[in-house]
Fold these 2 entries.
Entry 1:
Amino acid sequence: MDMKDLEEFKVWNTADVFPDPIWKAKYPHKLFRLQKKAKEFLDNSEFLNAGLERDGGASSSSDPEQPHMWGESQEFYEWLRNPSEEIWQSWNYQNGNRRQITKSWVNFHPPGAWTDEHTHGNTDMVAVLYLDAPTDSGNLQVHNPLFYHWEGTQRIAGSNSWTNVPIETGDVVIFPGWLLHRTEKNNSTNDRMTINTNIAASVNFQNIPIAKPTPADGR
Amino acid sequence: MKSENPFPEPIWKARFPGRLDTIANRIAKYASDPTVTTKELMGNLVQRYNLKDNPHEWKELDEFNNWLGSFVSEVWKNWEYSLEEWEELRFKSWVNYNDVGSSIGEHTHTRDVMTIVFYINKPSDTGHLQLFNPLIFHWENTPRKDDGFWRDIPAKSGDVIIIPGWMMHRVSKNESTENRLSITINATITTKDNY
């Protein structure tokens, strides 16, 4: 393609009129205290599980102690409040003022480990902080939610709807809980560590009234 | 924070920089051509087509086709589509005459891989192309503000919009005092004649 073609191509734009599911930013503050706390926590936790973690990976998702409860994480969660609100609005979600952290945990990937594909079910929003993401420790991979539409037409070899979201230490990625995702294998010689946070809007649940049998029930 | 889209983009738009008047004149003749099939579709839209005289094959569209070709290739590449050796793209096209007060109901272009809309006359208030968010069944997991899932793609005369055939779309009512004219070109994958 010569320069003329490139100039002409600039007149074409994507006209994306729908909410964007994937957002990314660089956390602007230092991570040292939080990294240190997370490592100590992993060293001492008695509730680590392999769950979706493969080839040596571990997750604290079963540990009642959760990163958002730590003093060391408060600066991060304070920072997260605004982008979380902004993205919530861009997704046209209701009840932004009722957003709550429903769960948080640490994922740990030594060399060779990775996380298998999964969603976060009915979680409204997921935020991942890359506490330690050395070069070649693997990217986040997301699966195209329009897969079933695009697959109606034959696609180029190697196209399987999994796409990399490149990540580095300090990156924060936010996406809806329904987005299928996984990680690449940690091909570095160092550990990868993330803090994962589920966010949902609380709803005023009402209990189902206890049924009172009436004489007509015959019981 | 910035949004990132690592996936193929379904919706593309550009402005054709060439002349529209010669195309409009040709369309006017087409409207009264007795060989042209005229259909009235839902929403009072009048669609005219002649499978032996596709608008995209008119000499009046040579300049447009030359301009469009490289961009169709780029969109095709972005969509990661491919053809087998025995396959080819076949195009068909027609003219939509959106008279005052008319609209087009929601539909897809089943089996067509690409739909190209070329606005020949699109005054303001003549009704926009509207697209339906194909991720509705995901976003609907969370209570949302009541703004629906249809979105306008604003356009002017000379604008060209490309969408995949699977995308649900419609055209809102022509509230203006002028008729709206557009040419739609659909691309379908077919087996080559010699296979």
Entry 2:
Amino acid sequence: MLSGFGRLYRGETRINFFGRRRVSFLASGIVLVVAVISLFSQGLKLGMDFKGGLAFEAPVSGTLTVDSAAKVIRDAGMTESDIKIQMLSSGDNKRVRIQMGVQTSDVQKKVQAALSEASKVTIDEISVSSVSSSWGRSITIQAIQALFVFLGVIALFIAWRFEWRMALSALAALIHDLGISVGVYSFLQLEVTPATVVAFLTIMGFSLYDTIVVFDKVHDNNARFSGSKVSYGDIVNISMNQVLMRSLNTSIAALLPVISILVLGAWVLGAVALEEFALALLIGLSAGTYSSIYIAAPLLGVLKERTTEFVSMRGHLSLGADMSHLMKTGTPIGRRAAARLADALEGAEPVSIPIEALLSHPPRPRKKTRR
Amino acid sequence: MNRRLIFTLVMTIVVTLSMFVANQASGNRPALGLDLQGGASVTLTPVGDFTDAALTVAVDIIRQRVDSIGVSEPEIIRQGNTVVVNLPGVKDQQRALELVGRTGSVELRPVINVAQNPESTSATPGVGGSTTTVAGSPTSVASSSTLASPTGGIGSTRRAAADTSTSVPSPSTVDPTTELAPGQTVLPGRKDGLIYLLGPVEATGEVFNSDSSAQIDAGNWVVVANLKKGAEGEAQWNALATKCFNGGAECPSKAIAIVLDDEVISAPTVQTPTFDNGSVQISGSFTKSEAEDLARVLQFGAVPVKFDAPTVQTVSASLGKDSLRAALISGGIGVLLVLLFLLLYYRLLALVVVAGLGLSGLLMWSIISWLSKTNGLALTISGAAGIIVSIGVTVDSYVVFFEKLKDDVQAGRTLRNSAARGFENAWKTILVANTVSLIGAVILWWLTVGAVRGFAFFLGLSTIIDIVISYLFTRPAVLLLARTRLFNRGRVLGVARKTTQEVAA
């Protein structure tokens, strides 16, 4: 008997994805509801690039560098990752500029004191001023408008290339992935920075790409089985089993660098700036692979099952050995298929099918032997 | 067939390598963004009276202007009462000042006279120097544009305006060096090689709403601007328009000059005395980009705050060197892990992936280096991470192909046959999925600014490279390898080819 991995490797899995769609719909539904509740109750924690904050500027007389200034700030008790430290220089005149989110006046004084000590100047020489957001409101509005145009055009393209039900399912999967990613950010109150926005967009692109690859397979199989009486659920199941190894491989290839950045870069080497970015990608990319197989394709099945072409076979699924047979030969087999055939033929005259019609090739004519 | 495949393969490798070498040799390197490398920090301090709201508007206008330059992700913030503009990788501080320092107030002045600019090197066809035509033929002056009010929605009004777009006065009669009346000035045209004698400033760009746009009317590019209501907009504009339409001593040329930073951007002739419906259409022989530039000037031109001379400082990277190092090390190890995984999974075939990814990397490096030099592109940490993620999508093209190939081999086809069939099938999938990515990238690039635009750029770039490498490298490489004896021996792909008996069983 083959092990699970062996079957996977040879493309011989026979998992009933479509039959268990309610489980995945329910699981995703719960996660999404939690995400929406969290989003409405506590919202997103926006970083200083969106909200603005404080800027400290101190003249540098000694050997203060960006890295040592970061240490000073951490020692003063600031734990946030959203701090931007830059060195400004024109000629010999050097200043260090530190930007952070809005702080209480206590924290402000503490940072000032720490900076004056580190750069060996009096506390009055360290200027504090408020900073506006660098990510202007107009940028956000523009981005959201672009997003809607993007979704519209993509939907039209998929509807044109495949069909509108696939467009609808792909968009649903996309919203599912973004919803989960944004939900995690809201739930854990992670800081949203411009890098996070880029991460969300990356997730969107990946989710869409992955769904299209999966749908392309469904589209192919739809054509392949168009001649035989097969339910759409079967087509979905077969396609998912065929595409499973590809999806696993691709997501491993996409996630390995992200995991490496998160574990090695952020945790071992201590580059905190990378942590949230990598985390957003990790969650979003996993959701993207999951949703293509467990959300988009079953949803397509549900929509497609009701069309006149497939409604008569609705609810019939070939499982296990039946699915194998279906995949190999392109025609259904087994008790259910026989019952379905009987249903279809009910009332009709039983037709005797000549043996030639069942064989794929007509029998070869007998050789003429010379007498 | 065989020879053509070898030719494609060799050409792809040669072209990629020579692009890389050429870029290296000419010293092009990818420029890094503000977070990784730092850049120039320009501080603008307002002078005179200003309100808090006006400063906010000014920040927005400056942001629009700086953002529309390219994909380099500049950072514009308001710090206290100053505006700070950080430009990545700009080593030339003079250029930083040029980009930001323009006060950008748009002035509208009546045109009194026009002449050929003696200092200009760009020869305008038909004007001066030419021996074949009458010198100073007014009909061939390229800069002439007309101004028409698209009233009443009657098409003929507009067409008439477009047809009579040639009424700049004869340049030969101008002597701009004669004494100027108070308020008058002489300014050069931006591109047309003319100089203009202008009357006093009668209005500013503030008369227009900031929704000017470039549009196509009757096959020509025009700029449509909308006037503000009341004394601030329509009244001022119409006073000037009426004056110029009548062509009195103050505006004998009947043209209004649109002036930005002491340059005449355009000098259209007025076609109607008043503009009753608040909409102004400027037509002329614009190209698309000229029309868009003019629209942009009218949109954001006037900044409501006057700034002192800007100061420039060098700004260091906001991410420490540690972060960059950590990102590079961990990203590199991640890519190595991916390659290791693929080697385990696809055995010898994974060598094609290694080579393909290598070529994609070189191609991307070359293009980014080249654009850094020419277009001021700058790579930020999120851009870099986006590229690392794009490896997943790139690898997917190989995975789709190889899985199909494996299926076919398992079903009993020869490797050679499977490779050809597998690619045909996979190519269809790769193409449709990448098209979706590309559509997304183009829309986002087109409609957004800043970080989102940067993201769209790298998405589009990696998608195009994926398509190119798939067809021009992966296909010939695998098809050729599938013919070698080495690949047809045993379980190279990790699956054995079934014999005919096994398939039947």
